[in-house]
Design a protein that fits this description.
It is built from eleven helices and eight strands. With 354 residues, it is of the alpha/beta class. The chain has one domain: Alpha/Beta hydrolase fold, catalytic domain (Rossmann fold, 3-Layer(aba) Sandwich), CATH 3.40.50. Strands 1-2-4-3-5-6-7-8 form an eight-stranded mixed sheet, with helices on both faces. β1 and β2 form a beta hairpin. α1 packs across α6, α3 crosses α4 and α5 packs antiparallel against α6.
């Protein structure tokens, strides 16, 4: 639920949201993959992969799709998040950089997310312990088996989807013409980033109502701690200070924001979503990425703070990579800047031109 919760935080601080435009036509569907094998050796007889698409595929003389763009969501999110005005009204509008009249846009729900197969569908803690490699393989099967797309013009990813983009670039270097990872680092999740995730998972496990994942009712106390951590991880310090300049304003905002943010959380789903990052580490294979990469982070990102200096070391190892650090902005959105396209659409334009 990380992206959904972060979005609620960021929307609360938006100063002057743009008026919504007419939504582009969206198609939804499911692809069922039989006997999907996870990296753990576990299998699912049927793995359901949900997706949304905008636009229509255009094929060359050989039948290959030449205009497909896949956009990958963050932890706890779904493809639906990219239909919000701050993203869709900027990029999917007529004449926009990703105008559906020109591109075939694919918005998957990752394994364990949205309307794709996930623990809360019934298996609970018996659901296979998926990781990012499994999620990328699920995306590949969705494209190849379901949508008959074997090549992409662009892979864009936000937060967890940003990390998936790096996995894609190394595992399938010829699949996409370009990569645009937004808000992540291509290295093992360690330090504070790992600590807050571990704290979130431990809080749920320590709740007596957890019952090993076979709870009759949600372990609310554990979820409350998890929710607190998610709100902090998604916050942008400067806009938050400006919007909540007094103690009473901050307390009132939290009292208003917390109840709807925690509503609908499922402990099993959240645990699996956060734990999926446990073995992510593309740092050793960055030289294998051959597609142009436009990698964009934000200076006010709690999850990927720039003072670590990791990006400056990693970026030169990407053959055709460009790293951009967006400066702190009083109208910014911290980690969630990845979904506010107005801040980085010029970088996307440069990538597509390349």
């Amino acid at each position: 639920m990380l992206n959904r919760l972060i979005a609620m935080v960021l929307l609360a601080f938006a100063m002057s949201p743009a008026p919504a435009l007419a939504a582009p036509a969206v198609k939804e569907g499911d692809v069922v993959v039989r006997d999907f094998r996870f990296g753990s050796g576990e299998t699912l007889p049927e793995l359901r992969l949900h997706y949304r698409t905008l636009g229509e595929p255009r094929r060359d003389a050989s039948g290959r799709v030449v205009n497909a763009v896949m956009i990958l969501h963050g932890t706890g999110g779904s493809g639906a998040q990219f239909l919000r005005p701050q993203f869709a009204d900027v990029l999917f509008k007529p004449g926009g950089l990703l105008d559906p009249a020109k591109y075939y846009i694919i918005l998957p729900d990752g394994i364990g997310h949205g309307a794709s197969s996930k623990p809360s569908n019934g298996l609970r803690a018996r659901f296979p312990a998926y990781d990012y490699d499994d999620m990328v393989e699920g995306q590949r099967r969705l494209l190849i088996d379901g949508l008959k797309v074997d090549h992409l013009r662009l892979i864009m990813g936000t937060s967890m989807g940003c990390m998936h983009a790096f996995v894609w670039g190394e595992a399938h270097p010829d699949f996409a013409d370009a990569l645009m990872p937004l808000a992540c680092l291509p290295t093992q999740i360690a330090g504070r980033n790992r600590v807050w995730r571990r704290m979130l998972m431990d809080a749920i496990h320590a709740d007596p109502a957890w019952k090993g994942g076979d709870y009759a009712e949600q372990p609310v106390q554990g979820l409350r701690t998890a929710q607190d951590l998610l709100l902090l991880a998604g916050a942008a310090p400067l806009p938050q200070q400006l919007a909540l300049p007094t103690r009473d304003a901050a307390d009132a905002w939290l009292a208003k924001t917390f109840p709807p943010a925690i509503a609908g959380l499922d402990a099993n789903d959240l645990l699996y979503q956060v734990n999926a990052s446990r073995n992510y580490d593309p740092s050793a294979g960055l030289e294998r990425i051959t597609a142009p990469v436009m990698w964009v982070n934000s200076a006010d990102d709690f999850i990927n703070p720039p003072e670590l200096g990791i990006a400056e070391v990693m970026a030169p190892r990407i053959q055709r990579g460009t790293f951009v650090l967006l400066p702190i902005n009083p109208d910014g959105h911290g980690h969630g800047t990845h979904t506010w396209a107005a801040f980085w659409q010029d970088r996307l334009a440069a990538l597509l031109a390349d």
